[in-house]
Amino acid sequence: MAPFPISAKFDGDFVLKLVPVDTDDTIDEVAAAAAAHSVGIHVADQPGKVIRARAEGAAEPFPRDMKLSDTALEPTDTVEFYFSEA
């Protein structure tokens, strides 16, 4: 368990946000932390959809139950967040 800052790039937001998360967080928990800084502020909520996360420029999202510590991300790497049907 260790603090781990990421740069959150939320689809539809024009501002990158530095978001503090933890290495023990799941990707769903990381997505929720990122959403708290964008959804309802610069990005409209999309009820019924889930927030997915992927490394910047990656085609595939991280598995939602994956621990942040199991990714190849480094502190302050940019993570892209977006709404998805599942």
Topology:
Layout: E1 3-10, E2 17-22, H1 27-35, E3 50-55, E4 78-84
Parallel strand pairs: 1-4
Antiparallel strand pairs: 1-2, 3-4
Shape: globular
Percent in helix = 10-25%
| Number of H- or I-type helical stretches | 1
Q: How many extended strands?
A: 4
Q: What is the CA-based Rg, rounded?
A: 12 Å
Which strand order spans the largest sheet, edge to edge or round the barrel? Answer: 2-1-4-3
User: What proportion strand?
Assistant: 25-35%
Contiguous uncertain segments of 5+ residues: none
Q: Residue-averaged pLDDT, rounded? A: 97
| N/C terminus separation | 28 Å
Order of helices and strands: EEHEE
The largest pleated sheet is described as: 4 strands, mixed
- Class computed from helices, strands and strand pairing: mainly beta
What's the short story on this structure?
The protein is 10% helix and 31% strand. Strand 1 and strand 2 (17-22) form a beta hairpin.
Notes on the structure:
This protein has 86 residues and is mainly beta. The chain is built from 1 helix and 4 strands; from the N terminus they run E-E-H-E-E. A 4-stranded mixed beta sheet has the order 2-1-4-3, covered by helices on one side. The radius of gyration is 12 Å and the shape is globular.
